[in-house]
Structures are given as structure tokens and as C-alpha cells.
Amino acid sequence: MILAAALLFATPDLPPVTEVVDSRASFVSVQAVVKLPHLSAYEREEAQLMAETMTDQVEGYSRVEMRNLAGRAGDSVRVMLMPDELRIQMGVLPVDMKSAIGYIDQVLRNAEFPEDSIKKAIGEIPYRRKSLWSWALQPAKVDFRGVHRADIVDLYHKICRPENVWLAVGGSVKPGEADQYWTDKNADWKVGRPPTPSLDRTPAAEITSLPGREATVELRGKEIVGNDPSMPTQLLAIIALGSGKGSAMFQVLREAQGWSYRQEAVLWPTEAGFVPRLIMASGDKTPPAELAKSMKQQLIDAVNAWTDADLNRARGMAEGILTRGLEMSPLYFNPGWPIETNLHDQTFLHAYWRMKTGLDWDAKKLVGEMTLIGLAELKETALGILSVSIPHVIPAQG
Amino acid sequence: MLPLIATLALLQAQDQPPRLRTILENNSVILVEPMPAEPVISVQLFASAKYVPETEGTHGFRHLLEHLIARGDGSLDRSLETQACFLDAQTLRDAMQIEVTVGRDQLQVALDALKNILKTPHFTQTRIDKEMRVMRDELAMVDDSLLLSGGAWKAAYGDAGLDPLGTFDSMYRATPEQLEDVFARQFAGDGLVLAIAGPVDIDKATNMAKALLGPLPKGHFPKSTVERVGKPGRADADGFGECRGAIVPAFDSPQTAAALAAALAVGSELSGCFVTYTPTTRPGLVILGRTSSTSGVGSYIDSLESGSFLYERGKTMAKEWVMRQLRSASGVAYFRGLLLCQGDTYKPEDMLRQIDAMTPKEFEEGVKAFKADRAAIAVGTR
Q1: Residue A345 touches chain B, beta carbons under 8 Å
Q2: Partner-chain contact A246 B143, CB within 8 Å
Q3: Complex-level ipTM
Q4: What are phi and psi of B58, to 5 degrees?
Q5: pTM of the entire structure?
Q6: From the CB of residue A301, how many other CB atoms can be counted at a distance below 10 Å?
Q7: Cα–Cα distance for residue pair B201/A9, rounded to 1 Å
Q8: Which residues have a Cβ under 8 Å from the Cβ of A294 and sit 6 or more positions away?
Q9: pLDDT (tens digit, 9 = 90+) per residue, A85-119?
Q10: A63 interfacial to chain B (CB closer than 8 Å)
């Protein structure tokens, strides 16, 4: 039984702490979800280096001790960067919860960014292998030439501000304990003068080809805002299009055409909300641009032919994903795989949803709202996503 | 009246053993583990590979078979998804695993789905060719960690370590008759295990499972005689990065516990590492790798004079590695089912016992098992 609550007595400068109580959990998940402002392409590169190195040296905490602390719960310290948030995650034994909160607090306020760590990250990150799917989701190139430590530190102070940090704890936690500790610890952390956001809107340069024989072909829809009231319908339409073996993408792109082994529809987080993305990996000989065109038309035809059976399948799939933990969610909150029902992800999701939409994450309510959506509305929404979608292809190097 | 009912219910719950293993006349095995707080029931059918070892000539036939039977004509998936249920399958070295995840009151839905899959199939060449087209894409997308692991297995065990994925060149030779023969061997009654975990009644679920497996005939095929004898070595892999495989005996040996603890602890020192171990009662590999062209895993291990500072962390991480799998319905059915499929007395607790008993000296040996002169090494060529 998981119970989630946002405590309301946080200080005005700090968003409320989210507590996800799961009395069966063997460890406590402690996470900070940090809302990102608009970042220029250059700042995004700096942010990658910041995420990579921010736990390397932290005032008052030894790196080895913190790894051992997480290791006692069989866990580790992880930092993940997404388009709209930075996530610092650590699993610890319940008895170590305060130590983990204290550590994450220091990571956010007093990371030291040693020059050696930054040099090492610059030398390593470009040579890390990303899976084909990770490239499809995040095709931006990295070029760290010209990035300096001072810029990373500036960005760190611009991002890691009290009003941006959503702390979340999950597991067998005592209600109110984490909040009290976090609030006391940060009584002196004030919002202060707001930073100037970057005015540079130039998109990041993307890779122009993928190693190997698989290309990625994508139809990218129009962005919807985080608290869009049509979210349940959008989510159901995305599931109908691309989650599960009865989905339109599986049936058309894999079963009927044999173009692809993996194809999914995702709601990808963006700075302002989410963008629907229909992606397939394909080794087909047809030029990817033509494949994208055919993909769009065939999916439109499939949606036009949807019946109540498709609506019911999508509802069933949505229930399975949202309440039963089927690992086929269209929601991605890390660079490589969809959200899961493990304690870390559920703790994250409850804090993230409040940060993103101002609403509580309530899977059962969402599934309930989906039962009110009719076939015509589902088709209209799916056709809306498809009709305005723009093809994005990354050819294979062959 | 209410307190009395509650007490009776409690007594009933306490009376039930934590799990029940049943061996049927055809030597198939049923394992039921009630987990009342779980939101789903995981029903997993394991089909032993004991009668169908991978060979150069049939490399990947089991994988192809898995695709064909799990998909069927598509109606099964559609029906399951409409009921918020899901079917997934994977081919492992020692078994094929088919998992159906269903809600609290849907055990029969899962068993019906598996019954459908257990029906003797008839394939056509057209259907095989169509699936091969999709599988060509699957093989082209295999993660580097899998490619590296495959290389390490080949280096350690030669043909006895062939990966279960297969190659296009070998699979495209499969005929309907060959695949039907693979099916008969893979799904022989005495190689099957049905593991059920989740909110179920132990006796009721066992009886329902008996109705599914009981009528199946035993297999009368010769058991594979291919032995896995590991040796250190090095292989190129069509991937990116590097991995080291510690050559270990069965899952319940002190060496395996130590190598797993060492891999997890060393992996936590280097960001972006992967650790792979699939529990097997035969000799296997605990793999530690990194998919980066500047991997550094090997040089880190080789330069490590002592791993003693990692002992406590490694021991806890290895224990958690086992325990986390035993906390979810899917993890329980997977871990227990996979071991039972290799012998009806094996259980995860045997591995936990070895981890608990692991000494610093054994852990140090576990670290040494990854050093260049003792490990199976795979280096990516991309």
C-alpha cells in the first residue's frame, strides 16, 4: 500500500516535501527533483558536466562514505538529467534517511566541482556508448570544447535554488520527519534575486547518422503543457498508438509491414510540458524520409479504422501500465527506459508530477478518467497528434 | 462477530506455508508463493533447454520459436491487454521463460493464455520468413552489454557458451519441421516449471496449475551432454566497450557469491558499469563491464591491489541483489522458477546462505577472478 502526501508546512522558499509511504519497502528512496529553467544549448552541455561531477566532492561528506551508505541498502547514488529536471537519487536504510537528506542537501548547496573531475568527465562522456533508443530519444551532440569550470559553477547556482528543489522520500518513513529535517536544515536557504534566464533559443545540434544498420524514424507531435486538461485523453491516445502488442504502431509497423522490431509512442518531457513522439527503429531499405511519410499515412488509416475493441484495449493497457506496473509506459523520466513501479520511480513520480503540473499523481483517478473517454474523442486526439506531426529521421551509417 | 472473523482469517493465513512446491507425475514442477500485498499475480512458465542445447547449426532456433509461439496470431495479446494483462517471453541459456502478468482475480486468464501457448504449433515457411524480417532488426539493435557478454561467454566456454539470441545466418535455415521438433523438446513435460507468485490461495492455485501441466507427456529425448568447462581467454565482440567475466561454478557456490559481490562493489566505484549474472546450476559467468570506448574496467581491476575496502559494501549489495528479486511477484516467480527448472531442489536461499557466509578472503578471491589472467575478457571492436 503506497500513500503519498505533500506536507504543507514547508517554508515559503522551499516547495513542499513529498512523502511516499510504503511500509513494505526495505529501503528509503531519497530524491531531489530540481526544476530546470530554460537552458541554451551551451548551458545544456554545461548541465551534463554539472550532473556528472556534482557528487564527486561535497563539503562535509566523503564520496566513499556516501557510496558505502547507499551500498548498505544495496543501492547507489545517481544523478540523471532530463530536458525539464535534474534528479539526484539515493537509496539508504531507513535509519540512514537523515544522512542521505543531509548529503543531498549539500550536493545541492555546496558541491565543489574539482577541476580534475570536470576534465575526466569531458574526456569520458563523448566516448560513452548510448543505445540506439537513447539516441532516438536524445539525439543532441555533445561538444565540450570551450566549457569552463567557472561556467558550470555559475549554472549550478542558477539551477540549484530553493524554489526549484522538490525533495521526495519514499519507503517506510515516519510522516513529517523528512520534512521537519529538510526545513530545519534549509531555514537559511533563501530565494534571493532571480537569475536571468538565457535568451538563446538556438536548438542543440543533433547527430546526423547512427552507427550500424538501423535508422530511427519519428513522427514528432505538438507540445502540450504539463497541466493540460486533456492529459488523460492524450495519454490514452498515445497508449492506443504505441503501447503494447495490440497498439497501432505494433500492428502496422511491425506485424503488417515488417519494418521494425521496436516501435513506441512516448510523451517526452520538455521544458514547458510534454511532446508526443512516435518512434520506430528500422533497418528497412526504404529511405527513412519515405518511410516516415508512409508511417504517418498508415497510422492515420489505422486510427480511422479503430473500433470499440481498440478503445477497450487501450483502457486495459492504461490500467495495466498505471496501476499494475506493466513496464510499457509512454512516460520516460530517464534517458533510456520508461518509468517503472519500483520505489525510486514512484517516489520520483509523485514529486515530479507536483512540480510539473501542480497536481497530485493519482494513477487510479487517471484510469477512472480514461473510462469516460469515448471512441470518437480517442480517434480525434490520435488523429490530432498524427496530423500535425513532423517527421524526424536519423539515417543509419550502414 | 467481526473480531472473530478477523482472528480466523489470521489463523488461516498463518497456517499457510510461505510457498508450496509440487512435483507432478510427469516430473513437471509447480511452485506457488502467496504474496497477498502484491498488486498483480505473476505466472511464469519455464521450459528447460536440457533437450535443446544451442549448437552452431541450430543457434537461435529457440529464440525464433519463442517469437512465433508468443505472438501466435495476435489475438491472445489483444485479449490480454484488454483485460489489463500482459504476456512477455524471453529465451535464456538454460530455459525459455514465458510470463503472464494478471490482476488479483485473473489467475485463470493467465493459465488459459499459457494453455494456448502449450498447444503443439504448426508453422509455415511464410510465417517464419516474416518473423525473421523483424528479428533481423532485433539482432541489429542488441545492446552493447549483451554483445560484450556474448563475447565473454564464447571466450570462456566456446560453443557450450553460445548466446541464446542466435544469428541471422543460422536462424534463416530453420524449417517448420525443425521448429516443431524444437518445440516438442523445449516443452516436454519433465522440463516444465510453472511458478506463480502474488495474491493467490496456495492450494487453489496449485490445483489450477496441475490442471494445466498434469496432462502433458514426459519427454523421451536424450539429455544434452554438452559440458560447460570454463577457461580464461579473450574475445573480440561486435560491440562497444569492454567486459570481464569471472568464471564461476553453480549459483550456490562460495565462488559465485564472492564474484557477484566483487562485481557489484567494483561496479559501484565506476560510473556506468553493468553487472550481469543469470542464476544457473551449471558453470557460468559473473560479468562486469562498461560500454564506453574508454571503459577502464579492466585496468581498474588489474591495478586493484586489494579489494578489502569493498568487502562490506559488496556483501550487502550481493544480498540486496537477491533480496530485491524476492520482494516482487515477478521477481519471485522468475528466480524460483528459473532455478527449479534446472533441478527441483534449488532455491535462492542457497545463494543467500553463501553470501552471508562469505569471508573477506573469499571476497578477495572474488575480486581476483576478474583479473586479466583468470577472467574471460571481451573487448568491443567498434
Answers
A1: no
A2: no
A3: 0.89
A4: -120, 20
A5: 0.91
A6: 11
A7: 44
A8: A286
A9: 999 999 999 999 999 999 999 999 999 999 999 99
A10: no
